[in-house]
Design a protein that fits this description.
It is built from 3 helices and 4 strands. The protein is an alpha+beta fold.
């Protein structure tokens, strides 16, 4: 991008807000010495456009092109890594199942909880109040 066109690009960026407010649409086109500058008022992307063979052809500005190519390279590497992992049978890490000891321990804890809960229910049905171990019952005021 030429240094002469930088003020035009910055001006176009400043006008993006007003173009959106006026409802002129998504793109704003401004004429330059070498063609047109197209501003996407939604994303802020700037493209340089020229007339070729009776059609307008737009290309991304150099700094946006570099960012685009960098992102494209990163995505390509991720896809290759995923495909390579799929070819070797290595897919996502599978969660490990609990061991028999962990299951037995969990069931033991649950049994104790259920026995205690059923004891509380039985005491309530019998009209008794149970206090938790290690706590003193607070006498009611009369």
């Amino acid at each position: 991008m030429r240094i002469r066109s930088l003020p035009l690009v910055f001006g176009a960026l400043l006008l993006a807000g007003s173009a959106q407010a006026e409802g002129e649409g998504r793109y704003r086109m401004d004429k330059t010495d070498s063609g047109l500058v197209r501003l996407d008022t939604v994303t802020g992307e700037v493209s340089l456009c020229r007339e070729q063979d009776g059609q307008i052809v737009c290309r991304m500005a150099a700094d946006e092109r570099a960012a685009f190519e960098k992102e494209l390279d990163l995505l390509t590497k991720r896809i290759e890594a995923l495909e390579k992992g799929g070819a070797t049978g290595q897919t996502a890490v599978k969660p490990s199942l609990p061991t028999d000891e962990e299951i037995d321990r969990t069931m033991s804890i649950m049994e104790k909880m259920m026995q205690r809960f059923m004891g509380i229910v039985k005491n309530l049905e019998d009209g008794e109040e149970e206090t938790a171990p290690g706590t003193d019952a607070i006498p009611e005021k009369t």
